[in-house]
Specification:
The protein has 252 residues and is α/β, with parallel strands linked by helices. It has two domains: 33 residues; 204 residues, 3-Layer(aba) Sandwich (Rossmann fold). It has a seven-stranded mixed sheet with strand order 3-2-1-4-5-7-6, sandwiched between helices. A hairpin with a 7-residue loop joins β6 and β7. The protein is globular and about 50 Å long. It binds S-adenosylmethionine. S-adenosylmethionine binds next to α4, β2 and α6.
């Protein structure tokens, strides 16, 4: 893939772009033979990516004794959904009820509200993906499940479309749903607010909600949505000390 601009905001120093280009070059020209390449993906993780993986692991380990499914809101390329699927295979390989459900338009931001401010990323279509990406992600999820026990039972779903519509539809189709872990990474006010409201009756004590952008001036709408739906004084909004931006709360 080339240098498409998806309106991403980064806070790296002036040398970061050049270092990342060099690394990308090393990825593309990797001399490791095919048979060993997938076993050595850690070679290409930058600390920031690794710290996100550690955060997802930290969240997942907190729901091991909580009934319910995992919902990944704003999955984009789907890394979190793949990680959660791997973690299910590692930590609770026989939990057939722990579905991983990934939501995205796969076309980027469907719209912006006044509450979202005016950071560079705030325009319709930001954070889109390549054409038909959801099919690629579906194949990855299928193969990831196949690496783990109970592979004959499908335990993942991709819901393409506006999540404010899709989550209601999912809950209508799956009326038994309890949400053990919800990860919010829409970056936006409206979907964060509406989806929080939709899943609120499906949370239980111990459910974990992760947020990518609370207290982040680039995405004020995410915090405003949490204030309006949950309030800040009702739950402790914690941060994972090894990752700069992310937060979480545990329903008590
Ligand atoms: C910052 S990206 C998510 C990044 C991803 N979670 C990751 O870890 O790489 C924000 C995503 O939210 C999605 N999104 C925003 N509003 C949405 C909505 N109403 N319904 C579905 N997806 C939405 C966008 O399409 C985009 O993929």
């Amino acid at each position: 893939m080339g240098e498409e601009n998806y309106n991403l905001v980064t806070y790296g120093d002036s040398g970061q772009a050049d270092r990342r280009r060099q690394r990308l070059d090393l990825v593309r020209n990797c001399p490791i033979p095919d048979g060993e390449l997938l076993l050595n993906m850690g070679l290409f993780l930058v600390p920031q990516t690794l710290s996100r993986i550690l955060f997802m692991d930290f969240l997942y380990r907190q729901i091991l004794d909580v009934q319910g499914i995992v919902m990944d809101f704003g999955c984009r390329w789907g890394q979190n959904a793949l990680l959660f699927t791997a973690m299910r295979g590692i930590y609770e390989p026989f939990n057939r009820l722990r579905k991983v459900v990934a939501f995205d338009t796969f076309g980027g931001f469907p719209g912006i509200s006044a509450e979202d401010g005016n950071s560079q990323m705030m325009s319709t279509g930001s954070y889109s993906v390549t054409e038909g990406y959801e099919q690629y992600l579906a194949k990855l999820l299928e193969l990831q499940e196949a690496e783990c026990p109970l592979e004959h039972i499908s335990k993942h779903e991709i819901c393409k479309g506006d999540a404010t519509v899709e989550v209601a539809d999912y809950l209508q189709r799956n009326r038994e749903t309890i949400v053990a872990l919800a990860y919010f990474d829409f970056d936006l006010y409206e979907p964060t607010k509406e989806v929080l409201q939709a899943i609120q009756p499906r949370l239980t004590r111990g459910s974990v909600i992760g947020f990518d952008e609370l207290n982040d001036p680039d995405c004020p709408g995410e915090t405003l949505a949490v204030i309006e739906v949950l309030g800040l004084d009702r739950y402790a909004i914690k941060r994972f000390p090894y990752n700069s931006r992310t937060s979480y709360l545990v329903v008590e």
